Each structure stands twice: as C-alpha cells, then as structure tokens.
Amino acid sequence: ESKSLKLYLVSFRNHGDFHEDVVNVIMKDLVKLMNPKYIEVWGKFLPRGGISIDPYTNYGRPGTKYEKLAEHRFMEHDLVAMDKVDNR
Q1: Which residues of 64-83 are buried (b: 16+ CB within 10 A; e: fewer)?
Q2: Buried/exposed code over 34-60 (b: 16+ C-beta within 10 A; e: otherwise)
Q3: Left if phi > 0, otherwise alpha if psi is -120 to 50, otherwise beta: which for 31?
Q4: What is the pTM of this model?
Q5: Does 85 score more than 80 pLDDT?
Q6: What is the rounded CA–CA span in Å between residue 19 and residue 57?
Q7: What is the DSSP letter of 41?
Q8: Each residue of 69-78: pLDDT tens digit?
Q9: Under 8 Å CB-to-CB from 50, ≥6 apart: which residues?
Q10: 26: Cβ–Cβ under 8 A, 6 or more apart, which residues?
C-alpha cells in the first residue's frame, strides 16, 4: 500500500541517524518484508550545509543471477547517470 509506505518513510524524518544508516535500515526492512529477487534503495536527501549525500544500496538474492546483478549495479552506480533526480 502506498499510504503505509509513505507513513513508514516519513517516520524517518526526525531520526538522528546518518543518511547511510537510514537507507540500510529501509533496505533490510524491505528485504525482510518482501523477500525480493532484486531491489535498490537510493536515498535522495536534501543537502545539509551545502553537501549532498545520496546513499545507494541494493540487494540480490544469494545464489541467483540477481546476486551478480546487484554487485554489478553497485559497482557502476555512480559512473553512469541512471536517471536525473533533482532534489536540490
């Protein structure tokens, strides 16, 4: 449900965690909930102090072709613009 996902994401608004930690928590929760073959989580946070931090993580189910895909996508993530997301 989109509403429950929105409420879940908004619940991180007042957390004192680092952006990287938030993205990893979201990833772990989604993997536990959905058991996906492959998933990516990319945090597009508003800059703090003029510094943009956009952490990225992904997951490929171990023992499948998606595990290799996750490794490849992670290594290539910042080399090629996957899409233009302007949150600045």
Answers
A1: eebeeebeebeeeeeeeeee
A2: eeeeebbbebeeeeeeeeeeebbbbbb
A3: alpha
A4: 0.79
A5: no
A6: 12
A7: E
A8: 999 999 887 6
A9: none
A10: 9, 12, 41, 43
Type of residue at 68: K
Residue 83 lies in a domain: no
The mean pLDDT value of the chain amounts to 87
What CATH number does the domain containing 12 carry? Answer: 3.30.1130.10
R_g of the chain computed on alpha carbons: 14
* Model pLDDT for residues 21-62, shown as the tens digit of each residue: 999 999 999 999 999 999 999 998 888 788 888 899 999 999
Output the pLDDT for position 11.
92
- Strand, helix or coil for residue 57: strand
Range of the domain at 70: 2-76
